[in-house]
Design goal:
about 500 residues, ten-stranded mixed sheet, about 30% helix, globular
Length: about 500
């Protein structure tokens, strides 16, 4: 009898343990469900979004501080919405926080203003025209609540909210990175710029642009962009840099023409501080006058001659490429001589996609440090492909000689100062894919080059800040509930089965 009572007690204790376990798990599940419902209803959330880490960097403060010091002007950051709305909006709040941080760091030098343009449109009426970086012209614009205006004295610039962000695949619904620190810093520098730097973009040689990112880069660097016809128009007033991007028709340089574009360029480059920058690619035609002009400046575009046809070299380096085909390659910076001064301090390697090969023109004599001189002109190779690179042309390998990817030729003028011709062997180098990268050094390279050519106060070193991925799952809601139920029941069922097995074994013991 006693044995039967003991077994009965054990069964009761075991059953009670199972029941308590089931009740505990059920209580936890119910509590979680209840708390989740209340949290959703009353917004009981802690903001874990990476925005909290997007403070203004010390590099930005240092840059602006060096420019603002000694300035009497005040730069105004003007928002076309109320402060309350900006704080609460998940996108505008980034720009709001950056702007107010700058104002707090530089009181009296940078200020913020907030206007409700729906109730008081007259408060921003004077800013209804703005300069377009993509066209270089003043255009009328209907201000929106998402506009941000940077103003100082008679200068102002209207920014759209989208300009402060980078989007995946060009889709403005897919935020990829925040660019507000760099963009606002550029705006402040622009507003305080007194040298009025102008870049002239040639538009009469069939220039082909794949996107407008180069224009935005030049704008961020503090240049005012002017488009002009090199043959018929005078070079824009104040211009110290001319850019030709992927020209597809040749320069005019013959006795039958009233104007020689080559002579016009050389006259422009006889003035110290002026520069001419050309971007070419494999598809850029072999233009005889362009080719002769660049060779006169020491830059030889490498070609493979087959009969009467010429094929540009294409540089391939699978060991230093981002792509399996080996044509999206890293550029190795110069390490000696004055060429190294151009690239010194860069921490990220630039990318050259679909690059052709450059080299020093015959007749330019080596100086033993990678540079070549003829007369008052010296060729410098700023970036090269690695020693494992091979150049291809007409479907076959044609050279394993060192391939220059970015070259600069300096001309020493009568006053002892210099002017410059630069050639980049990849047009993809200056496209959105790489200029917007937070990993590659294309933007930093261009900003530093502008500084070496004499442009002051560029936002060098300020980069975009990628968002952390918020895609925590790709499952559907129905699948989510199935997993929730399964994960809630599995512990209960497991404990219950284990308890039953223990009870059965004890009863049979």
């Amino acid at each position: 009898m006693r044995k039967r009572i003991i077994r009965s007690r054990r069964a009761r204790y075991g059953g009670m343990s199972v029941l308590l376990t089931v009740l505990l798990i059920a209580t936890v599940v119910l509590f979680n469900s209840l708390f989740s419902t209340l949290a959703k209803r009353y917004s009981w959330y802690v903001d874990m979004h990476p925005a909290s880490s997007y403070e203004v960097s010390e590099a930005c403060y240092t840059l602006l501080g060096s420019v603002l010091e000694g300035k009497s002007e005040t730069v105004k950051l003007i928002f076309c919405d109320t402060e309350k709305n900006l704080k609460s909006d998940s996108t505008s709040s980034y720009v709001y926080k950056t702007a107010t941080s700058l104002a707090a760091r530089f009181p009296g030098k940078i200020t913020t203003e907030f206007h409700n343009i729906w109730l008081d449109p007259a408060s921003v009426k004077q800013y209804t025209t703005t300069l377009s970086p993509a066209t270089g012209e003043m255009v009328d614009t209907a201000l929106k609540s998402t506009n941000v205006i940077v103003a100082c004295g008679d200068y102002y610039r209207v920014y759209d909210l989208t300009e402060f962000f980078v989007f995946a695949d060009g889709d403005t619904s897919k935020l990829w990175a925040y660019n507000g620190e760099k963009k606002l810093a550029s705006g402040v520098l622009h507003a305080l710029d007194t040298d009025g730097a102008v870049v002239g973009m040639t538009n009469n040689h069939g220039e082909v642009f794949y996107d407008y990112e180069l224009f935005y880069l030049l704008d961020d660097a503090g240049y005012s962009i002017r488009y002009f016809n090199l043959y018929t128009d005078p070079i824009p007033e104040g211009c110290d840099l001319i850019v030709s991007f992927n020209p597809n028709t040749d320069l005019v340089n013959d006795d039958l023409s009233a104007t020689s574009e080559v002579a016009k360029l050389n006259e422009f480059l006889s003035k110290s501080g002026n520069g001419f920058l050309v971007f070419i690619e494999n598809g850029t035609p072999a233009l005889p006058q362009y080719r002769a002009f660049l060779e006169d400046w020491g830059v030889h575009c490498d070609y493979y001659e087959s009969g009467e046809r010429s094929f540009r070299y294409m540089v391939q380096d699978p060991s230093r490429s981002l792509t399996s085909d080996g044509y999206t390659i890293y550029g190795d910076p110069a390490t000696a001589g004055r060429a190294a001064e151009y690239v010194n301090g860069l921490t990220r390697a630039p990318i050259f996609k679909n690059a052709t090969s450059l080299s020093a023109q015959n007749g330019f004599v080596s100086n033993g440090d990678g540079s070549y001189t003829k007369g008052n002109r010296t060729f410098y190779s700023l970036f090269t492909a690695s020693e494992t690179a091979v150049s291809w042309a007409n479907g076959k390998p044609v050279s394993d000689a060192e391939a220059t990817l970015f070259a600069i030729t300096e001309q020493t003028n009568g006053d002892g100062n210099r002017s410059y011709v630069g050639v980049c062997a990849s047009t993809d180098f200056a496209t959105e894919e790489f200029l917007q990268s937070a990993v590659h050094g294309n933007t930093d390279t261009m900003m530093q080059l502008f500084e070496r050519l004499g442009k002051t106060n560029t936002p060098k070193g300020l980069t975009i800040k990628p968002f952390q991925s918020t895609d925590i799952s790709t499952v559907t809601t129905a699948q989510m509930w199935k997993w929730t139920v399964a994960l809630a029941l599995i512990p209960v069922v497991s404990v219950s089965v284990a308890a039953i097995l223990i009870l059965v074994r004890r009863r049979n013991a």
